From TrEMBL:
One of its GO terms (biological process) is L-valine biosynthetic process. Residues 30-105 form the ACT domain. It catalyses: 2 pyruvate + H(+) = (2S)-2-acetolactate + CO2. PROSITE patterns: ACT. The lineage of its organism: Bacteria, Pseudomonadati, Pseudomonadota, Alphaproteobacteria, Rhodobacterales. It comes from the Bacteria. Pathway: Amino-acid biosynthesis; L-valine biosynthesis; L-valine from pyruvate: step 1/4; Amino-acid biosynthesis; L-isoleucine biosynthesis; L-isoleucine from 2-oxobutanoate: step 1/4. PANTHER family: ACETOLACTATE SYNTHASE SMALL SUBUNIT (PTHR30239), ACETOLACTATE SYNTHASE SMALL SUBUNIT 1, CHLOROPLASTIC (PTHR30239:SF0). GO terms for molecular function: acetolactate synthase activity; acetolactate synthase regulator activity. Its EC number is 2.2.1.6. This is Acetolactate synthase small subunit. Dimer of large and small chains.
Length: 186
């Protein structure tokens, strides 16, 4: 009988090597999908995600070519590099899908989101909410004696930061569009 010899301190062949490898690291990716604008297409795309247990962090859909009847679906999801590749491959196999672009790996992209935030407050909190809105370049789109509705556009991180600052000032409600994204350049 021969025993398997492993150098002391080596974890290369150990069953207990739990250090994450590159493939174990989850990443956020923005995927743009151009599809036929017809009933049921969105349900098929979303069904791919739900059927396999993939999470969608953000989803936007709109018709982008009225004459060609195509829509663009922008999905922000996360997963290991292998999961992201699997998602893209499976999206490409859906019949009404024309193009699949992973904007995260294809180069620089512009990502923006729109949010409406209702903030209820009076006195100093009201003044502070207006001051912060000015700093974040948020617009007041509705105002009463008790509340404001702010409109803000920017990266999801900018919107998160603005919402975090508005919470102690009386943030009541938030509506977000989800990410819209395009690759930069030609």
């Amino acid at each position: 009988m021969s025993a398997l010899k492993i150098k002391k301190g080596s974890t290369k062949h150990s069953a207990y090597n739990l250090r994450p490898t590159f493939s174990d690291v989850e990443e956020s990716h923005t995927i743009a999908v151009v599809v036929d604008n017809e009933p049921g297409v969105l349900a098929r795309v979303i069904g791919l995600f739900s059927g396999r247990g993939y999470n969608i962090e953000s989803l936007t859909v709109a018709e982008v070519d009225h004459t060609g009847h195509t829509s663009r679906i922008t999905i922000v999801t996360n997963g290991t590099p292998q999961v992201i590749e699997q998602i893209k491959a499976q999206l490409g196999r859906i019949v009404p899908v024309h193009e699949v672009h992973d904007l995260t790996v294809e180069g620089a992209a512009v990502e923006r989101e729109l949010a409406l935030l209702k903030v209820h407050g009076d006195g100093e909190k009201r003044v502070e909410a207006l001051r912060l809105a000015d700093i974040f370049r948020a617009n007041v789109v509705d105002s009463t004696l008790e509340s404001f509705v702010f409109e803000i556009t920017g990266t999801p991180e900018k919107i998160d930061a603005f919402a975090d600052l508005m919470r102690p000032l009386g943030l009541e409600e938030v509506a977000r569009t989800g990410v819209a994204a395009l690759s930069r350049g030609i």
